[in-house]
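Action item from last week, closing it out:
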Amino acid sequence: MYPHSTSLMIKLLEKKYGAKLKPSEYNEDLWGDDTIFASYLVWMCQEIQGMTDSDKAGRWIGWVFGAMQFRLRLMNNAEARDAAREDAHR
């Protein structure tokens, strides 16, 4: 689900963090390290891409959009809306 949004966010994360990204599930260290946090977001995006439960995918993508905007500052609200709109029209 959300192929455009997840691909866009993975590309933005790869551009910023490059080879340091290692997609991984949640662990407590992510709150103190932006690279670990970004790796968790990549993992979340990959999981979203394979989801079939649209409610769960919607909650997860919203969380990732929020993290991209307010924690890592790699996109703004208009960019997030545009990405989501692209997915809605598929």
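Closing note: The chain has a mean pLDDT of 95.
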